[in-house]
Amino acid sequence: MTDRGPLATVSPLDGRYARYTEPLVPYASERALMSARVEVEVEYLIALADLDATPLSIDDDQRATLRALYEEFDDEDAAVVKQLETEGYGEYAATNHDVKAIEYFIRLGMPEGLDADNWIHFGLTSEDVNNLAQRLLVKPAAEDVLVPELREIRDALVEMAHTYADVPMLARTHGQPATPTTFGKEMAVYASRLGRAITRVERAAEGLSGKLAGASGTYAAHVAAYPDVDWPAFAEDFVADLGLEHEPLTTQVNPCDDLAVLFDALRGANNVLLDLDLDVWLYVSDRYLGQEAVEGETGSSTMPHKVNPIDFENSEGNLSKANSDLVFLGDYVTNSRLQRDLSDSTVKRNIGAAFAHCLIGYSKCQNGLAKVVPNEQVMADDLAATPEIIGEAVQTILRREGYADAYEQVKKATRGREVTIEDFHDMFADLDVSDDVRAELEALTPTDYTGIAEQQADDS
Fold first, then answer.
1. Alpha-carbon span 267 to 325, nearest angstrom
2. What are the Fumarate lyase N-terminal domain coordinates in residue numbering (predicted)?
3. Interatomic CA distance for residues 364 and 442, integer angstroms
4. Who's near 73: CB < 8 A, 6+ residues apart?
5. To bridge 457 with a disulfide, which of 84, 165, 253, 313 should be the other Cys (CB 3.0-4.6 Å)?
6. Is 388 in contact with 177 (CB distance < 8 Å)?
7. 3-state class of 372 per DSSP?
8. d(CA 366, CA 156)
9. In this predicted structure, what is the pLDDT of residue 306?
10. Largest interatomic CA distance in the chain
11. How far apart are CA 129 and CA 40, in angstroms?
């Protein structure tokens, strides 16, 4: 077999985009899942030893040795686990079962003087281990990798909102010229939306829950062996010690409603950024935003002048792919035939891929925001060329002054016509209003007609 280097990978996540997805390796790789499974099995073994009902005793040195199995888990250990599963290792034949391979791995690393082979995986089903191990990876992947990247984007948007709070810009509703805004205020909108989305992601990650209740969720094997132990209380304490909430009522599988909530929260954050990507792309297209040219970079293979908004386009593509995966995952993992089927096993292995597309999208969006600068002159020229947008203010002031047909009068003078600011002034001269009101109308300009947009941006 040829070497599977970055140019021979099946997925761009481990090839072209590997430098972006590297932060997820400790949480989304096969090695990471093995290590997390070892952690669950080892901590469960130690928790059994702490039960008065069991004869198992593990001293401090032995506990340290056991915990080192996952704390110092490396590529060589992962290779041993894989060999136990696929080929066999030492005295153990191939298990063709990934969790059983973990059990044998722990046996191989059992501390000297500790005879506890029969207590490893005691009363458990594989899903007890897997659902906890997966959440031990998903939780920090969301909290320590994805959320900080989202916060970086929000911080960049807040900075842009403050920096360009007073830069007026023509707004567009239905793609047509509309009441002006400021560029800073529009960035503040996205910062606010993203901030709320981040809070939802954080809450969802904090609320991840695990189960430890046996083959059908009834603690049957545990109760059969030690009927006097309060196994639900034991499970609740054990899951809480792992940093997760306890799911008390399950089948063999964790229902995964908690994962679905997290996937939906991430999709919500991604939707905010997708909207941002599209808007910034359009601002670049309209020349409202200029882009910093990167030395040596090629924009087009045939048009040398081009500086394309490739970061926002790449972000859009990856976030769209991530959302497709997140919807699929959220729908799929919450269903199981009766008490258990294995179709979800392979699906859950793709959680990391969905997170990776999120991470690439966030990185690309950050890169894009760092390169764009408002073209204030283009924005000002566009406002000056569109004086009809003060029509809203004109008809509103006239309504205040008692003009019942104010809207219709301004509409007749402006809709579907090229209008100049002088045309408005001619209209104002014929109005039956006081000199103060006429002066108020004549003072209206597209550049100044931005309401409290500057304040809104500054307050973001």
1. 10
2. 15-319
3. 46
4. 31, 34, 35, 38
5. 165
6. yes
7. strand
8. 8
9. 42
10. 103
11. 6
Q: Which pLDDT belongs to residue 301? A: 43
* Predicted pLDDT of residue 295: 54
Cα–Cα distance between 87 and 93 in angstroms, integer?
7
Q: Which domains does the chain have, with CATH numbers?
A: 20-109 (1.10.275.10), 126-376 (1.20.200.10), 386-459 (1.10.40.30)
- Residue identified by tokens 């704390």 is 71
CA 340 to mean position of chain CA atoms: 29
SS3 403: coil
Mean pLDDT by 10 residues, the chain (460 residues): 70 89 95 98 98 97 98 97 95 94 97 95 96 98 98 98 97 94 98 98 98 96 97 98 96 94 98 98 94 57 55 96 96 88 86 97 96 95 94 93 88 83 90 93 95 95
Q: Which of 300, 324, 343, 434 is catalytic?
A: 300
Where would I find the beta strands (DSSP E) of 186-329? 209-210, 245-246, 289-291
Tell me what pLDDT residue 307 has: 59
Q: Is 300 a catalytic residue?
A: yes
Q: Are 203 and 413 in contact (CB under 8 A)?
A: no
Q: Can you give the pLDDT at residue 36?
A: 98
CB 254 within 8 Å of CB 247:
yes
User: How many whole angstroms separate alpha carbon 302 and alpha carbon 300?
Assistant: 5
pLDDT at 300: 44
Q: What pLDDT score was predicted for residue 293?
A: 59
Say if residues 274 and 155 touch (Cβ distance below 8 Å): no
Distance, CA of 292 to CA of 373 (rounded, Å): 8
Rounded to an integer, what distance in angstroms lies between the CA atom of residue 432 and that of residue 309?
A: 51
CA 391, chain centre distance (Å) = 42
By C-alpha distance, which of 8, 27, 5 is closest to 353?
27
- Respond yes or no: is residue 126 known to be catalytic: no
